[in-house]
Amino acid sequence: MKLYPALVSRLANQHEAIASIVASANEAKLKKEIRAGKWSIHENIVHLVKYQPVFIDRIHIMLTQPEPIFEAYVADNDPEFEEWKKWDSERLMNALQKDRQAILHLITSLPDEKLARVGIHKKFGRLTIVQWTEFFLLHEAHHMFTIFQLANTIIE
């Protein structure tokens, strides 16, 4: 199992678009529930930031245990999520960058045989570390698209 250039590039850079996407939104818009019952821009960003340490932990578990099974991460069931929602944008973006550097280093430093280690996702089955990383990035991209939509929604 090998890393491919597009994966490494996205892992290194994809998250950096968040700051540009929300640059024109003030703090009130970041925290406003634009769609009833759905997360705000801020809550989507908190979710992305909070999931990074979860992802790091899962990779370490995959490296030390044979084919561990992971439940879906549900932010609303994470007691720390409420605390992290109190963080300001600067603190969130700093944590996003710091943890992303840790993820990038962890993933890119693994030899091919370690990248082939497997963790079991309840919905998607057996995934290698490379596939988990792709899943991580696609999940992040989904939330980034949501953030883009919310940031560009006209509020009346």
Automatic annotation (TrEMBL):
Protein name: DinB family protein
UniProt xrefs under InterPro entries: DinB-like, DinB/YfiT-like
Gene3D superfamilies listed in its UniProt record: dinb family like domain (1.20.120.450)
SUPFAM superfamilies: DinB/YfiT-like putative metalloenzymes (SSF109854)
DinB-like domain location: 14-144
A UniProt-annotated Pfam family: DinB_2
